[in-house]
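Q: I have 222 residues here and want to know how they pack in 3D. Can you give me a structure?
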Amino acid sequence: MSCRSVLLSMALLSAVITGLSSLVHAADLNDPAPIGKHAGTFMVRLRAIGVLPENLSSATSLGGSVHASNQVAPEVDLSYFLTDHLALELIAASTRHEVSASATVLGHVDVGSTYVLPPTLTLQYHFMPHGRFSPYVGAGLTVAWFYDTSPSRPTVAKVGFETTVGPTVQIGADYNLTGHWFLNVDAKQMFLNTRARINGGAIRARTSLDPTVVGVGIGYRF
């Protein structure tokens, strides 16, 4: 990620946090008492996330390695508390990534761009659910669908990526700011491998994307 991209990402995260803090401050007037987490309730969170593919163990039939770009995007999740400590969380987000191959026999190749939709379901354990500060850990499964893929013409006329499934681990914390409102920080490590077919299969590539997803946002518990 370039210096400019990092600065833009930081500015976006700062704007989101500022806006969410203003909403919570306004809600504080009518809903001052913290309520914690309890069985049978739902929590909705909105986060700003950074998606950082690790691009490990990649290769192409022309040699070299594959690289997918970092991205910043919004994320929405819904949690249901089975008990005070245990919750199921469904995470939804979509990001667009630029894909390229470097050090091939053709040199650096811009493959194109693709959107990925990786719904993720995790089972979480929440420590100290009745306190203001409540960290949690989680583990689950991610399914990644690639769609609206655009090849980088004229070198690449056609490209497609396989749907992939892999495990995900998670760590995060909620802070009960006031009433039903929570501040949230979260990090997930997804283990995802995918294969690409370029120009009808004339060129093949594989990569362990293994994205790290870090986010910050706000939650509301019903």
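Q: Anything worth noting?
A: Residues 1-7 have pLDDT under 50 and may be disordered. The chain is about 10% helix and 60% strand.
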